[in-house]
């Protein structure tokens, strides 16, 4: 029978206490290092949860600096066109608590930001995020409550940025093929025609609806 840990005291007995610096590094606002990290970052993961606690983590990406630092306590993330599920935005409306993980290609350190978010349609903010003349319809404003640089152990273990760790994408089916497999009736498989049409649809969406 597997053992479980049900309270923090039990957890501390196993993992011990953090060093003082690991606790002190969490800041209630963005300092110059956090601001520069965000200005260089083309990618983040956005963690949200709904009012019942159901969680979701969603990627956000664009050119470096696509997230606006409005001041030391406020960020703005433009919402680019997606699949219209709007899981993150729906969660934020019911529960404003969010967690962000910023990454920079080649950097093994990451930046973690926690705070409270709102979904906004501020025209002035959105117009600053236009790409190729296309202005996003919505965005996420984050009031920063905590920010700190996270060490590189996970990236060193995973060798995420090491070219020798790159895998051959062709070893797995295309996105369309996997989705069609998942939604097909049990025991059936999508036809080659359906997969080809799905691949074309996905590629067309990439070409026409990035912004």
Give an account of the 3D structure.
This protein has two domains: 15-158, Electron Transport, Fmn-binding Protein, Chain A (Pnp Oxidase, Chain A), CATH 2.30.110; 167-208, no CATH class. It is 32% helix and 26% strand. It has eight helices and seven strands, in the order H-H-H-E-E-E-E-H-E-E-H-E-H-H-H. It has helices spanning 8-15, 20-24, 32-40, 87-94, 123-127, 153-158, 175-183, 192-208, and strands at residues 43-49, 55-61, 68-71, 74-79, 97-103, 110-120, 138-150. Strands 2-1-5-6-7-4-3 form a seven-stranded antiparallel β-sheet, covered by helices on one side. It starts with 7 loop residues before the first helix and ends with a helix. The mean pLDDT is 96.
Write the topology of this structure.
Layout: H1 8-15, H2 20-24, H3 32-40, E1 43-49, E2 55-61, E3 68-71, E4 74-79, H4 87-94, E5 97-103, E6 110-120, H5 123-127, E7 138-150, H6 153-158, H7 175-183, H8 192-208
Antiparallel strand pairs: 1-2, 1-5, 3-4, 4-7, 5-6, 6-7
Helix pairs in contact: 7-8
Briefly, what is this?
The chain has 211 residues and is an alpha+beta fold. Helices cover 32% and strands 26% of the residues.
């Amino acid at each position: 029978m597997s053992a479980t840990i049900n309270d923090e005291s039990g957890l501390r007995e196993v993992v011990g206490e953090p060093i003082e610096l690991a606790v002190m590094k969490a800041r209630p606002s963005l300092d110059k290092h956090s601001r520069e990290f965000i200005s260089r970052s083309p990618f983040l993961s956005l963690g949200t949860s709904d009012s019942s606690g159901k969680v979701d983590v969603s990627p956000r990406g664009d050119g470096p600096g696509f997230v606006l630092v409005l001041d030391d306590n406020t960020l703005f993330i433009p919402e680019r066109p997606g699949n219209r599920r709007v899981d993150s935005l729906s969660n934020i409306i019911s529960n404003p608590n969010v967690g962000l993980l910023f990454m920079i290609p080649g950097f093994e350190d990451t930046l973690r930001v926690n705070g409270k978010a709102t979904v906004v349609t501020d025209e002035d903010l959105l117009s600053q995020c236009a790409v190729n003349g296309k202005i996003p319809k919505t965005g996420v404003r984050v009031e920063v409550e905590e920010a700190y640089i996270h060490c590189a152990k996970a990236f060193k273990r995973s060798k995420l940025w090491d070219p020798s760790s790159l895998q051959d994408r062709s070893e797995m089916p295309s996105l369309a093929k996997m989705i069609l497999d998942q939604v097909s009736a049990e025991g059936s498989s999508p036809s080659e025609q359906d997969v080809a049409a799905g691949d074309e649809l996905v590629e067309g969406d990439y070409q026409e609806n990035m912004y």
